[in-house]
Amino acid sequence: NMYGKCGSLEDAQRTFNKMPVRNALSWNTLIVACAQHGQGKKSLVLFRKMHLEGVIPDKATFLCVLSACASQASLAEGKQIHAHIVGCGFESDVIVGNALINMYGKCDSLDAARSIFDKMPEQDVVSWTSMIGAYAYCRHGREAVELFQQMQREGIIPNKATFVSILSACASRAALTEGKRIHTLIAASGFESDATVGNSLVNMYSKCGSLEDAWRIFAKMPERDVVSWTVMIAACAQHGQGKEAIELFQQMQLGGAIPNKVTFMSILFACSHAGLVDEGCHCFASMGQDHGIMPAVEHFNCMIDLLGRAGWLSEGEDLINEMPYEFTAKAWMTLLGSCRMHFDIERGRRAAEHLFKLDPCNAAPHVLLSNIYAASGRWDDAVKVRKLMKAKGLRKQPGCSSIEVENRVYDFFVVDELHPQKEEIHNELQRLSRQMKDGGYVPDTKAVLHDVEEEEKVDMLFYHSEKLAIGFGIIATPSETPLRISKNLRICSDCHAAIKFISNIVGREIILRDTNRFHYFKHGVCSCGDYW
Length: 532
Prior knowledge:
Elements: H1 2-5, H2 9-18, H3 24-36, H4 40-52, H5 59-72, H6 75-88, H7 94-106, H8 110-119, H9 125-137, H10 141-153, H11 160-173, H12 176-189, H13 195-207, H14 211-220, H15 226-238, H16 242-254, H17 261-274, H18 277-291, H19 297-309, H20 313-322, H21 329-342, H22 345-358, H23 363-375, H24 379-391, E1 400-405, E2 408-413, H25 422-438, H26 454-462, H27 465-476, E3 483-487, H28 493-506, E4 510-513, E5 518-522, E6 525-526
Parallel strand pairs: 3-4
Antiparallel strand pairs: 1-2, 1-3, 4-5, 5-6
Helix pairs in contact: 2-3, 3-4, 3-5, 4-5, 5-6, 5-7, 7-8, 7-9, 8-9, 9-10, 9-11, 10-11, 11-12, 11-13, 12-13, 13-14, 13-15, 14-15, 15-16, 15-17, 16-17, 17-18, 17-19, 18-19, 19-20, 19-21, 20-21, 21-22, 21-23, 22-23, 23-24, 25-27
């Protein structure tokens, strides 16, 4: 136990091996030590050896190995351990049930997690928190919010962990109204001054598009740990405020806080999305030189993105080849996205071929390569890639845009025909389209990746999900209300140009969060300066 607590796993294992007799407690102690130091796979191997040696696991053993399964997202192992738990009669235990919910949630098996939750003979606050956390982790924000509301109706008092989980759910859904309501509950519960809750509030407000509120919470925090600084730097990064992020990074160090690997990922992300190439290269170099931190593969990915967005594609490809790590799908995917942005066909093809080998079941590289060919007018090549994708049974992720209106989040998909107000939405968009054209808007038909007539391309652009969400927001909210949209994909060039015109016509601020960052549209201008 001592060696485990001190992080010396080799000494712990050596001592364990020398023990003449090992009981369940001995095995549990080593299993816990491995799990707590990021060696979940080793914990599971030890559990199997324990079972083979005939040692009967107790409740503590199961809690340890379920935690290990959760950390490794090992669903198959988790199911086997669940069967052991049933056989040993522990399934009705509330603590074990909570651990099972957490494990299934981390393994993205929400139906199994919910089944455990619903069958529990009694549910404590941890049970509710675990299920809310599972929904939040799997980005099922709506279900998390609904369950939190049910929890309140049943009189269960949320704790700190509950608030952290539900704030994460609000962030994933960009549900600002619900997030503010929960903030009020947090203040009433006395948790607002807690650093972990404060960090979650900063993250929630940032991801809901209210950077001003995020700054306000950050400024009020009585104590700031490294996570507080990192979350605020990440907020600035997402909102395209690269210079402000660098200033925070400097203030953090002057105040004595030591940046960690996540801090450097956030600052590199900030430099990438603000086009601050020199500053980003300096931060990357300083990791090892000034802070003794070996850049991980994630930091190299950030640098590849930084170089690629700036058009330094050759340097980005060289960095992939020079990385002290094996080629990763993420690195090549990042370069491929930059090739799409800068229409580098040959380099994009090379990146895609690497991805077809590294991640053959991922539709995204096929879609991106097809898009590069289509945008360049190479329709035959685009069709070949689409046929390859179809032969593999892969499907493109559909674009979805969400908007919160009167405390409810509405989802829109491309050519959405299911919304009850579709006629009013289409009429509003047609009215806007006429005014946009009068103002000089020209549809960017390169954003249409189908070989059809120009007029049909214009019609297809009309029904993109973010435009439908904006059309609904305009007719469903008072004229002075800002519109907050979140999208699950990168905004296309035509929608970006169109929304600038729309913001000027309707006199509203339109805040759109895509997969990369926030865009603030106001008076015909976007905060990204057309660099995204």
